[in-house]
Amino acid sequence: VFHTDKGSLVLTHYCCLGNQPHMKAEATKDPKTVAFKYTGCGNLADDKAMHMHEASYTFIDDDNFKTTWTLWSGGKESESHSFKYTRKKADSAK
């Protein structure tokens, strides 16, 4: 879920792991990319427990964007996954 908090864009990830990482958008060199960095986590057993730690959204064009999520485990980055999304356009022939 995205929202503003005290003038900043923030993200809360409601994870299937049962925790809720909180992230804040930070400036990037690429104006098409929004990068979110970890600021804390609800329902996390300890700082080394597995959780999503970073996320980025890159807006490729009007119909496509890519997101990358970074998972931490044991207090360090363990893996990263990227997903590309494409807008499905309505069939104008109907």
Describe the structure.
The protein is mainly β and 94 residues long. The chain has no helices and seven strands. It has strands spanning 2-5, 8-12, 20-26, 33-42, 51-61, 64-73, 76-86. The protein has a seven-stranded antiparallel β-sheet, with no helix packed on it. Strand 4 (33-42) and strand 5 (51-61) form a beta hairpin. It is globular, with a radius of gyration of 15 Å.
In short:
The protein is mostly beta strands and 94 residues long. It has strands at residues 2-5, 8-12, 20-26, 33-42, 51-61, 64-73, 76-86.
Summarize model confidence as the mean pLDDT.
Answer: 96
Query: How much helical structure, as a percent, in the residues?
Result: under 10%
Number of helices: 0
Q: Low-confidence stretches at least 5 residues in length (pLDDT < 50)?
A: none
Strand content: over 45%
Strand order of the largest sheet: 1-2-3-4-5-6-7
Number of strands: 7
What Rg do the Cα atoms give? 15 Å
First and last CA, distance: 34 Å
Give helix and strand order, one letter per element, not per position.
EEEEEEE
Shape: globular
Class derived from helix and strand content: mainly beta
| Biggest sheet layout | 7 strands, antiparallel
List keywords for this structure.
single chain, 94 residues, mainly beta, seven-stranded antiparallel sheet, 62% strand, globular
